[in-house]
UniProtKB/TrEMBL annotation:
This is Phenylacetate--CoA ligase family protein. Gene3D superfamilies: N-terminal domain of ligase-like (3.40.50.12780). It comes from Kitasatospora arboriphila. InterPro entries: ANL_N_sf. It comes from the Bacteria.
Length: 396
């Protein structure tokens, strides 16, 4: 990984000319990207960095148009949905192996003799559940693929999972936070949990403090990624929590502080060509002593919301709210991020003459939940975590 002082810096080994050619050939196979990359593919550039970055909107349109045109056929791929609406979903195509073998060679939190308690959510928010099960199988350990428990069941399940022999836990951030908070309030310390796996953008400060209090001796392993990018980088118990080491098949750049990713794996289906993740970061040395710097994830751009372990485009939520006839404008914001009271708030302003009352707010809420692919799952078990409020009308 080289640190550069110009407008961008690139992580991992420089892509080879054959890797760039394969990536461009993959991109032009998607109708929505053919025009963008056909000229570059014909010229066979060896330097990936001369290509224009790929935006989230471009990738979304390209993947979905490719799926509708039959690109998923005969690929041995799995289609995962990460957000958006039924009309314009955010989706990715991943080989059926889920890149699990490549990930496991770089990131090995599990070993024979472990029993993985998999409380991660299922496929729609992003397929952490499937990936963790695959990693357990490759590691030669057993798994309890339980899924997300109801908060009211946590007290009973803590004892039950101990009786099952669980030694490792995989959980999304809201589930992990609820479990740790329950243990803190009840004074329980599940010492049988020796290993923790989490996947996403990063542990927020409040959850990290709970973890240090409730499970001070647990080895913590993190995998950074999203539905669109899959796994980008990883860290382990000796790493800083917010610093990740890019996987060998993920080429990482920083452009104006934003993290860009290109997937170079020969089995990749989705064409990630300098994809704009919406995350901001910097290259940083890691306490683990790795010879190459890792990527410190600092936050998200203004267009991306992180809510209950999922990522949403601010614009897609605003557009859904504004599609209601009585709504003139809307704004989306996450309040109390990282706390048990974290909630997503949509503030709507009505058109002239429309009543901005509780009935309208409830109707907007139901319309957004009905048309968004993953928001309903994100607030499952915590319906009050998503609210619609009427904004004050500006004075004349």
């Amino acid at each position: 990984m080289s640190l550069q002082t110009g407008g961008f810096a690139a992580g991992a080994a420089e892509p080879t000319a054959p890797q760039v050619r394969a990536l461009l050939d993959r991109a032009v196979g998607f109708p929505g990207l053919a025009e963008k990359y056909r000229g570059a593919a014909g010229g066979r550039p060896a330097d990936l960095r001369v290509l224009d970055p790929l935006s989230a909107d471009e990738l979304r349109a390209a993947v979905w148009s490719g799926v509708r045109d039959g690109l998923a056929k005969d690929r041995g791929a799995v289609l995962y949905l990460g957000g958006g609406t039924t009309a314009e979903p955010s989706a990715t195509l991943v080989p059926s192996c889920l890149f699990a073998g490549d990930i496991q060679r770089a990131w090995s939190p599990l070993a024979p003799g472990d029993v993985l308690l998999n409380l991660s959510r299922g496929t729609r928010l992003w397929p952490v559940h499937d990936l963790c099960n695959a990693l357990a199988a490759l590691s030669g350990c057993s798994a309890i693929p339980y899924g997300t428990p109801d908060t009211d069941d946590l007290g009973r399940l803590v004892d039950f999972f101990e009786q099952c022999g669980a030694t490792a836990l995989a959980a999304d951030t809201p589930t992990l936070r609820a479990l740790l908070e329950h243990c803190r309030l009840t004074g329980r310390r599940p010492a049988w949990l020796r290993t923790l796996l989490w996947v996403g953008v990063g542990l927020d400060g409040a959850t990290a403090r709970l973890l240090a209090e409730v499970l001070p001796d647990a080895a913590v392993w993190g995998l950074y990624g999203s539905v669109e990018t899959w796994a980008i980088g990883c860290n382990g118990p000796r790493c800083a929590r917010d610093v990740f080491h890019p996987l060998p098949h993920q080429y990482v750049e920083l452009v104006d502080g934003e993290i860009l990713v290109s997937t170079l794996h020969e089995l990749a289906v989705t064409p990630l060509v300098r994809y704009r993740t919406g995350d901001t970061g910097e290259f940083a040395d890691c306490p683990c002593g790795a010879p190459q710097p890792g990527v410190r994830v600092r936050g998200r751009s203004a267009d991306v919301l992180s809510f209950r372990g999922a990522r949403f485009g601010r614009a897609e939520l605003v557009a859904l709210a504004a599609s209601v006839e009585e709504v003139a404008a809307a704004e989306a914001e996450v309040l109390d991020a990282g706390l048990p009271t974290e909630r997503l708030q949509l503030s709507v302003r009505t058109v002239a003459g429309a009543a901005s009352d509780r009935y309208l707010c409830d109707w907007v809420r139901e319309c957004v939940l009905a048309r968004h692919l993953t928001l309903r799952q994100a607030v499952a078990g915590a319906p009050d975590a998503f609210e619609v409020v009427a904004a004050a009308v500006p004075a004349a």
